[in-house]
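Quick question, first post here. What does this chain look like in 3D?
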Amino acid sequence: MLTPSLVIAKKRDGGELTREEVEWFISRFASGEIPDYQMSALAMAIYIRGMSTEEIAALTDAMLASGVTLAWPTLKGKIVDKHSTGGIGDKTSLILAPLLATCGLYVPMISGRGLGATGGTLDKLESIPGFRTNLSLTEIQEITARVGCVITGASADIAPADRKLYALRDVTATVPSIPLITASIMSKKLAAGLDRLVLDVKYGSGAFMKSLDDARALARSLVDTGKRMNVTTTALLTDMNQPLGSFAGNAVEVWECIEAMRGRCATDLWQVTAELGAELVVGAGIAADLESALELFAEKVSSGAVLMKFFEMVAEQGGDIDAFGELMEAKFGIGGESDSEHWPTLQGGHVIEARSAGFVQSIHTEKLGLAIIEKGGGRKVQTDRLDHWTGIEMLCRIGDEVREGQPIVRVFSSDDQLIRVAPMIQHAITFSHEPVESPPLIVERVE
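> Answer (accepted):
Ran it through. Tokens below.
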């Protein structure tokens, strides 16, 4: 006969839990029969002892089974998604979802909010007036079928066991556990009823995983779990030792993505977005290889199809893109008609200058994210209200040569008080007298 204490003790002592034991424990935790303190004890045992690939798959499956899995019986195309482990300026989802939809794929993207110093996709999209991120399961299915893509938060019906467990992990020092991270990510993603999944696993100063080795271990765990759950899964390991793209924040990142979908995209942002997308269109048989996928993407962007698809998704989710443009104009002094040829460079902001001449050696990206939070662009506690108009523009990259007094970062804020964040930003960027090589952006593919 199973009891919570027997399961906890088995894992505490280094034993391997059976699928039956994992499913029994998680189902009773989800129903409230097993209390939080016993789930916390098991989480700590998992954190210390780890889990085998089989155990992680069983844990993922049990969390998935605690809620609803979407079904798509009437859709003809492949159901795909992408997940990123997060970073500063990580905005690829906003471009990738409509891009893939224009290629004939269906993208029901379940996204999240900011975590730690990193921004959240939902927080960014909510800078568009009226945009709804709390869609019901029926709305997710209907909008996906009509538009081809949707970006929303997980409803209460999706992996409720994960929601309960994550709240405990956050206060019991068990967040950085690869088995628990894997089950949390994959249970929510697989609830969308996917055929294929691509993962952007980031490493570096602005990432959850600071080292490449840790990122590689997480990517392997995620990919192996996807395969065991019969969903074709691949991962790219990408650098987060500097922000992705030119902007970091909420509204400014949405604006940057709209510019990207007009064909004016920062090189690094486009490379990561396109290579993640290529994993899915090549895997689905829509493109033969990376080169042909990139050609297809360029055609979709240049035709205006991707931008129009994004606007369509925004409208279906209640967003008013013209109102967003008007707010951007009011905040930054730009024109913002949604059908205009382009939106000019953002105006205003407060420039932070280099303290010395040299080559940009490193950027402590997490500190930049914390500076944005300090100005209200992220949450210190869960109940904080966001200032969607706070953000930064990077005016330098690792390897750039700069002179003393040259602008290196521009800060956008609703107030003029930079006394707290200016030193944080200046100290986040270091310089060398010798030339510095720019780090590779995509370092490895895991399959």
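Confidence is low (pLDDT under 50) at residues 335-343.
The longest strand covers residues 196-203.
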